[in-house]
């Protein structure tokens, strides 16, 4: 109590000291606005003369070396992209013309908040960045696993990250948003309402990178060879479906295997189970820009798939692991400004700021302007210009000429015309006064947060309430907790009342949203469900029924599941008829949280410790709503823990029927009915 009083006194002193201070630039100029970047009109592009934005963002970009400020914890793989059908009608981008051409890609997945040494199965947004090595140059689709973002203007990005990072006075907590400064930011920057709904949902604790959607977040433009433009958003949809961990499971995984996600990706590729993602696009005609009840340029808004269908246009397959994590994964430099002819930008103010920030960041991370010459960043097509020298220059330029225009080298290299493939910016008409402002069309912060809530299944809603309860339960300041409760009463009274009661806040009695619309595409329950690559922990001891168990294991493999043997000790396990299995894990190294499902078998020589470990293994998996199958001794264990008749629990003596029902249970991923009883 004494420490808490001291902390409150210090905080009040800080507030008193700061009350008379006015915000200035680093050079002392007083700042009149710190919410909006300078634009040509409220919905116009950000202007380069915005010295306040450039100073603030430059300082932020250079705050950390050498690891990334955000997305420091990442893992990557190589692959290829193939087109299903030509997109010539919409874009002249070369790699989107010919379905017979395969484009090399490099994809980096990452957590956002934690440092390079943090655990991976944390509650966080995930980066999903793809570099296409096209014949027209590199195209970078730099996105996340969440469709929207916390803020609407890039000027706010340093504030967001400062708030979510460990608090500077004690450098805690690491890789977590469950602390005062983050939720104080949320409560006082209510444009974050929609994104926070996503991060409190199961989307923020994905089962694996292979089962995680990706989104370009921003509104871009497709431009065809006739100069016609369409607004476009990009989606990556995993072929295996979109699936998640449960919170208790994720916390345990972080202790038992902090490399869980990267290990899953690496081992899947090594085994030939190549992750696949289909590329989808949402397209809006330019003359339909204002046909919606939200602004299509607002990065805190999504385009509901039921209103703007996702057109699937191709597939990406990741089929090769990196040779060296530092040289490739750490040195890769993404930039949303790396575009090719046929792909252009919109006036999304968050995107406009990123177009400045990414190059600025790489200058300090990778030691100067020549990071494009590192092998992982080098385009596959030739590149020529008059840029010279600088740190880490690798190209040896010949001749005396390094300027344009010139006669000594016949004016080479010379710009390419549009007909020759030269990039030309879409000639959007721009009019407006120079202002620091936000369009009125950006000011609805709660409607799509309510849409997200309405679209969730009962189990997903329960998880969101639990997530808010955990996160805000870690917040020390009661006023911040109450502010968040009052904020989310604008989204859903059911939601706000649910977590308010759990954290001891005043329970709101009025509020809620008039939005009744749903978008089924937002619920993971409507995602494809397959047994492919799902891991099955087979709990087996000496004396098992060799022929029957071996046939079941073989059948599971044939249906795409991946059985792994868990026993008391490593080595050979002998069946009753001479059959042998090799233990892949012990109960010490192969805990239930590391598997998707359980097949309990046992054997004639089950020790007391084996029996005890098996019961714990089964009960923990059951509490995480995982599928459980059992034959032989395993059926008795189900009865011991009273779960034999529960949803997703399969047992029986008919081998064929058992396998079919167990595979069906595995494909479902989780059996949430257990939580809702």
UniProtKB/TrEMBL annotation:
UniProt keyword terms in alphabetical order: Heme, Hydrogen peroxide, Iron, Metal-binding, Oxidoreductase, Peroxidase
GO biological process: hydrogen peroxide catabolic process; response to oxidative stress
Designated name of the protein: Catalase
Catalase core domain span: 24-412
Keyword Protease: no
Catalytic activity: 2 H2O2 = O2 + 2 H2O
Family named by the database record: Belongs to the catalase family. HPII subfamily.
Residues the record lists as binding heme: 68, 108, 157, 354, 358, 365
């Amino acid at each position: 109590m004494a420490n808490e009083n001291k902390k409150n006194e210090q905080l009040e002193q800080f507030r008193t000291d700061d009350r008379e201070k006015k915000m200035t630039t680093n050079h002392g100029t007083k700042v009149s606005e710190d919410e909006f970047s300078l634009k040509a009109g409220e919905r116009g592009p950000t202007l380069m003369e915005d010295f306040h934005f450039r100073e603030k963002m430059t300082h932020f970009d250079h705050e950390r070396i050498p690891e990334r400020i955000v997305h420091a914890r990442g893992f990557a793989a190589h692959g290829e992209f193939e087109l299903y059908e030509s997109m010539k009608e919409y874009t002249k981008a070369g790699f989107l013309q010919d379905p017979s051409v395969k484009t090399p890609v490099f994809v980096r997945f990452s957590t956002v908040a934690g440092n390079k040494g943090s655990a991976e199965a944390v509650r966080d947004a995930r980066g999903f960045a793809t570099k296409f090595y096209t014949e027209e140059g590199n195209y970078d689709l730099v996105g996340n696993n969440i469709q929207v973002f916390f803020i609407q203007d890039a000027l706010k990005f340093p504030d967001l990250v400062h708030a979510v990072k460990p608090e500077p006075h004690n450098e805690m907590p690491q890789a977590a948003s469950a602390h005062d400064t983050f939720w104080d930011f949320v409560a006082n920057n209510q444009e974050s309402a929609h994104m926070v709904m996503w991060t409190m949902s199961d989307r923020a604790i994905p089962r694996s990178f292979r089962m995680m959607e990706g989104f370009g977040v921003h509104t871009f433009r497709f431009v065809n060879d006739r100069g016609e433009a369409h607004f476009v958003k990009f989606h990556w949809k995993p072929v295996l479906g979109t699936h998640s961990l449960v919170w208790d499971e994720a916390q345990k995984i972080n202790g038992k295997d902090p490399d869980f996600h990267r290990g899953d990706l690496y081992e899947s590729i090594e085994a030939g189970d190549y992750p696949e993602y289909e590329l989808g696009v949402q397209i809006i005609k330019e003359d339909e820009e204002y046909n919606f009840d939200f602004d299509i340029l607002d990065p805190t808004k999504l385009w509901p798939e039921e209103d703007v269908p996702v057109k699937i246009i191709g597939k990406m397959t990741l089929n090769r692991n990196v040779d060296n994590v530092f040289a490739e994964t750490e040195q890769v430099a993404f930039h949303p400004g790396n575009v090719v002819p046929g792909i252009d930008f919109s006036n999304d103010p968050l995107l406009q700021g990123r177009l400045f920030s990414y190059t600025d960041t790489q200058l300090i991370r990778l030691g100067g302007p020549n990071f494009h010459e590192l092998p992982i960043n080098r385009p596959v097509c030739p590149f020529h210009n008059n840029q010279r020298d600088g740190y880490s220059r690798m190209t040896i330029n010949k001749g005396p000429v390094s300027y344009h225009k010139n006669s000594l080298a016949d004016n080479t290299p010379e710009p390419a015309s549009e007909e020759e493939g030269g990039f030309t910016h879409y000639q959007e008409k721009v009019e407006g006064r120079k202002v620091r402002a936000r369009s009125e069309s950006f000011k609805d912060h709660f409607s799509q947060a309510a849409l997200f809530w309405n679209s969730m299944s009962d189990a997903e809603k329960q998880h969101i309430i639990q997530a808010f309860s955990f996160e805000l339960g870690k917040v020390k300041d009661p006023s911040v907790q109450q502010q968040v409760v009052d904020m989310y009463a604008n989204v859903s009274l059911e939601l706000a009342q649910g977590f308010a009661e759990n954290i001891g806040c005043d329970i709101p009695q009025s509020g809620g949203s008039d939005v009744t619309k749903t978008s089924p595409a937002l619920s993971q329950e409507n995602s494809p469900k397959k047994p492919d690559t799902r891991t099955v922990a087979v709990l087996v001891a000496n004396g098992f029924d060799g022929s029957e168990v071996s046939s079941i294991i073989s059948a599971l493999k044939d249906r795409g599941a991946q059985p792994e043997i868990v026993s008391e000790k490593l080595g050979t396990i002998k069946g009753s008829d001479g059959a042998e299995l090799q233990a892949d894990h012990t109960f010490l190294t192969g805990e239930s949280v590391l598997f998707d499902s359980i097949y309990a078998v046992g054997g004639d020589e089950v020790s007391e410790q084996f029996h005890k470990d098996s019961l714990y293994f089964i009960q923990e998996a059951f509490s995480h709503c995982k599928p459980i199958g059992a034959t032989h001794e395993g059926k008795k264990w189900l009865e011991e823990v009273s779960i034999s008749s529960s949803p997703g629990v399969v047992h029986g003596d008919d081998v064929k029927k058992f396998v079919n029902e167990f595979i069906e249970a595995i494909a479902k991923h989780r059996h949430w009915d257990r939580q809702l009883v």
